[in-house]
Write a structure and sequence with these properties.
CATH topology of chain B: MetI-like fold
Helix content of chain B: over 70%
Shape of chain B: globular
CATH architecture of chain A: Orthogonal Bundle
Shape of chain A: globular
Number of helices of chain A: 15
Number of strands of chain A: 0
CATH superfamily of chain A: MetI-like
Oligomer: heterodimer
């Protein structure tokens, strides 16, 4: 295995002590067992149930009927692909905006700010612990007619404005707001992997700022950028609260359709089929991503290099 | 412009942009705090009259007490259970070298990336399939599915910096596996465990999409807030929002102070 980092190889020396180590299950598996059992029961099993329901006839609440494909057919024959398309589009726009917004900040945190970067990290993490609902509601208060923005403009400058609430831009704002840290931090990691000597060498050889960015920094920081991009893409794709609280009913996201099918629609098999499609799509992306990055290196290096 | 001037300008722009980000991040939270001190039934800005009346109402309200109680019970249980599971999970993730490790690392992280609303619904139909009636305890399970992997990750980061030679030495001196765990491994990983517990508590306290489908007849604070935002708005929404935010900030501060304290104690 090529992914083993240094502490692991050091641990390998213990193999020289066969008497104590000969056990039926390795200590690693033993330690992993509680988590594995829990996730099998509370994560894998529910997903299997969803998969099972997706093949049940319409509006059944048990898994004992003869399997059918009608739910998948109705997903494709009804307008559900529209919600899927809109969710994909919104997620894509969100990710692109996040990349552009995050780059200068990530660059600053990795290369310019020095010790202040630690405080900045803390300041960016803290809002994550405030319920997403409350933060989005804060945006409602800010944007709503007579709210902080429009009310303030009118009272102090005499300008009347239209509220941007309950429309697509408000949803994108919410998504960008909520997922920014998840794009930013992997990007900081990515940029901090660009060696200073390399950029300096490029400058010394007469490269312009733009050339250095495009030819040196961007490619070297790409792993971090891609991780953040995919992560935020998947999270935005499955989001629910942003479109509900900020978007009114302007856009029905795919998670919204799933919820409606399960609750008001009382059609579990349909909701299950939609879920399976969403899970397959984002699951493939996540597994590709996780397979591609070296977790030991990314997680283990944080301490060693500082 | 010379190179140096150019660099200065770029630096200035980046600092300004970062400052704007901080404003952007805290703006909505400030808006909620502001609205919580308004006397009016419906929020208008500039606020005509400031008042703390809604806070008094919130403290007197039995509903609020119930909601807080439910949220607190869930968050405390989640923090406790997730730290125990994730402690061993992190040892398997970062410390031990074993055959299934690579696959385990990837599978354990999957729930973090999973759309939470869909996960909540999946758990809802799973509970109904096996005949469990959802209440706040099923929400604990739902939160754990998402939070155990996160805490595992947090403790793993600590475990990566762990020097296996320490355990080696303990073994060589004749300690049993259990003694080594208690006297060597746990103290070394303690900071990770504490921050993991803190993460778990706060993430559970603020969670909405998982609770929405898994609490049954019980209700957490974020659920209630959402219900009232959508229909039946009351000025208690910003007030309770500000209160839970203040609560989370308090927990975070205590956690930070104890971390500083611990580092000092370890340093000596």
């Amino acid at each position: 295995m090529s992914t083993i980092s240094e502490p692991m190889t050091a641990g390998g020396t213990r193999a020289a002590r066969p008497a104590r180590r000969r056990r039926l299950i390795s200590p690693g598996l033993l330690a992993a067992l509680p988590v594995i059992v829990f996730l099998l029961l509370a994560f894998a099993a529910p997903l299997l149930a969803v998969l099972g329901y997706s093949f049940m006839p319409e509006k059944t609440f048990e898994l004992t009927q003869a399997p059918t494909l009608e739910n998948y057919l109705s997903v494709f024959s009804n307008s559900y692909y529209l919600s899927f398309g809109k969710s994909l589009g919104l997620a894509l726009v969100t990710v692109l905006l996040l990349m552009v917004i995050s780059w200068p900040i990530a660059y600053g945190m990795a290369k310019l700010f020095g010790r202040a970067a630690n405080f900045l990290t803390l300041a960016i993490i803290i809002p994550l612990f405030v319920s997403e609902n409350i933060r989005l509601f804060g945006w409602v208060l800010f944007l709503i007619k007579g709210g902080v923005l429009l009310g303030g403009l009118k009272a102090w400058l005499g300008i009347d404005g239209e509220s941007m609430l309950y429309d697509v831009p408000a949803i994108v704002l919410g998504l960008v707001y909520v997922y920014l840290p998840f794009a930013l931090f992997p990007m900081v990691l990515g940029i901090s992997m660009v060696p200073r000597e390399v950029t300096e060498a490029a400058f010394d050889m007469g490269a312009t700022r733009w050339q250095v960015f495009r030819e040196v920094e961007l490619p070297l920081a790409m792993p971090g950028i891609l991780i953040g991009g995919l992560l935020t893409f998947i999270l935005s794709l499955g989001s629910l609260a942003e479109s509900k609280i900020l978007g009114g009913q302007a856009v029905i996201m795919i998670a919204d359709e799933i919820e409606t099918a399960f609750t008001f629609g009382q059609n579990w098999p349909l909701g299950a089929a939609l879920s399976v499609l969403l899970i397959l799509f984002s699951g493939t992306l996540v597994l590709t991503l996780l397979n591609w990055i070296d977790l030991d290196k990314i997680l283990g290096r944080g301490k060693g290099s500082e | 412009m010379t190179e140096r001037q150019k660099k200065k300008v770029t630096h200035g722009l980046i600092v300004t942009w970062t400052a704007a980000l901080l404003v952007f991040l805290y703006l909505p939270i400030l808006c909620v705090a502001l609205a919580s001190f308004s006397k009016a039934r419906y929020f208008r800005f500039p606020i005509p009259r400031y008042d703390t009346g809604w806070y008094e109402k919130a403290f007197e309200s039995l509903t609020v007490r119930d909601l807080m109680g439910t949220s607190l019970s869930i968050a405390l249980l989640v923090a406790l259970i997730s730290v125990v599971l994730a402690f061993f999970g992190a040892l398997a993730f970062a410390r031990f070298d074993w055959r299934g490790r690579r696959i385990y690392q990837r599978l354990v992280l999957l729930p973090i990336f999973f759309p939470q609303a869909v996960l909540g619904l999946a758990l809802l139909i799973w509970f109904s399939t096996v005949g469990i009636i959802p209440d706040w305890r099923t929400a604990v399970i739902a939160h754990l599915v998402w939070i155990v992997p996160i805490v595992t990750l947090v403790i793993s980061i600590q475990a990566y910096s762990f020097d296996p030679a320490l355990e080696e030495a303990a073994f060589d001196l004749g300690a049993t596996r259990w003694q080594t765990l208690k006297e060597v491994t746990l103290p070394v990983l303690w900071p990770g465990v504490v921050s993991g517990a803190l993460f778990a508590f706060l993430l559970s306290w603020g969670n909405f999409p998982l609770s929405l489908f898994t609490t049954g007849a019980d209700q957490t604070v974020p659920e209630w807030l959402y219900a009232k935002m959508v229909s039946g708005y009351t000025p208690l929404v910003p007030t309770l929002g500000a209160l839970t935010t203040a609560g989370a900030a308090g927990v975070l501060l205590v956690g930070y102070l104890s971390w500083v304290f611990m580092r000092r104690a370890q340093g000596r």
